[in-house]
Design goal:
It contains eleven helices and 17 strands. The chain is α/β, with parallel strands linked by helices and about 350 residues long. The strands form four sheets. Strands 3, 4, 5, 8, 9, 16 and 17 form a seven-stranded mixed sheet that branches. Helix 4 packs across helix 5 and helix 4 packs across helix 10.
Length: about 350
């Protein structure tokens, strides 16, 4: 074991502050990564404040962060995919059993024994995993990803969660040329959804409650922008969408968007509203519409997404901050005061 600098929260009401955490030494199948950038995901904030205690209680101290891009510094003797100096990434998971039906199918994200990147029981150390708000991390090579050299590392970091969360359902439901795709909500997830739908060749429509976001939506790749509070604008698009990505985490009328789907159209939920959404059954039944949810992708699909981003030069729109401003970033995140993702420059940790 060795000690790594990190930022951690000691309790639900504590600030995230400087500390050190134990990391395992590199074993034969491990890759050690010097972390260059780590994105801030809303789940970091939920976990730090133990707001998901019902299904994922926080173990303190907690080191958040699962949008990690860094430089390989050391590899184990059996590692064949990476070498020191490579630009690499780690997403939301760092291990799985590798033997269950989900893992064999390439769906490690559904493995019942998956190990999350932070706040997950760690079979190697006997405590919990510590995430990317740290100077380094050690991960089994199966869960380390290659980052295309042309991508800005700061903007690439959020691809490991916000990117794959929006890319995966679009691939699942066949978004592409000749298809009409909607994106509800223009935030950390939504802005990535717009970029992917555009790059996949779909006709992209953004739905927002904020008229001030129209110009940005068009810049990101939208073909049209609809102010969702305007009933006439919504009616113009009735029964016309092949796919809609719902990235809103606040309470909203989901039926308004279900009614925009054509026969066999799909609406995928990637936002996480705190309360159940009321769904009108006949809206689904009468047009054979599909309502689904989607998390991250598996390892192979995440690599596919990164390669797609390299080909199309796609990264997240980020505001780069030093680690010392992470608590301020959390407060701003609660106010949606960021366009569209924070990315922590881990070089700032060296001054601690």
């Amino acid at each position: 074991m060795y000690k790594a600098k990190a930022y951690a929260a000691a309790s639900p009401t504590s600030a995230v502050a400087s500390t050190t955490v134990p990391r395992r030494d590199v074993t034969d199948k491990d890759v050690q990564i010097e972390i260059l950038f780590c994105g801030i995901c809303h789940s970091d904030l939920h976990s730090v404040r133990n707001e998901w205690s019902e299904f994922m209680p926080t173990v303190y101290p907690i080191v958040p962060g699962h949008e990690i891009v860094g430089r390989v510094t050391k590899v184990g003797s059996a590692v064949s995919k990476f070498k020191p100096g490579d630009l690499a990434a780690v997403g939301c998971m760092v291990d799985s059993d590798g033997t269950c039906s989900e893992c064999r199918a390439g769906f490690e994200q559904f493995c019942p024994n998956m190990t999350l990147t932070f706040n997950s029981p760690d079979p190697h150390t006997g405590v919990v995993t510590y995430g990317g708000y740290s100077e380094s991390i050690v991960v089994d090579q199966r869960f380390v990803l290659r980052v295309p050299a042309n991508l800005n590392p700061a903007g690439a970091a959020p691809l490991l969660c916000a990117g794959i969360t929006t890319y995966s359902p679009m691939r699942r439901w066949g978004v592409g040329k000749g298809k009409k795709a909607g994106v509800v909500g223009l935030g950390g997830l939504g802005h990535m959804g717009v970029k992917f739908a555009h790059a996949l060749g779909a006709h992209v429509v953004v739905f927002t409650t904020s008229p001030g976001k129209k110009e940005d939506a068009l810049r990101l790749g939208a073909d049209e922008v609809v102010i969702s509070r305007n009933a006439d604008e919504m009616l113009k698009h009735a029964e016309s969408f092949d796919f809609i990505l719902d990235a809103v985490s606040a309470d909203h009328d989901i039926n308004a968007y279900i009614n925009l789907l054509r026969r066999d159209g799909n609406l995928t939920i990637v936002g996480a509203p705190p309360k159940p959404l009321a769904v009108a059954a006949f809206s689904l039944i009468m047009r054979r519409r599909n309502l689904s949810g989607s998390p991250i992708g598996g390892v192979a699909e995440t690599q596919e997404m990164l390669d797609f981003c390299g080909k199309h030069n796609i990264t997240a729109d980020v505001e780069v901050i030093p680690i010392q401003k992470v608590n301020e970033a959390y407060e701003r995140l609660l106010k949606s005061d960021v366009k569209y993702r924070f990315s922590i420059d881990m070089a700032s940790l060296k001054s601690e």
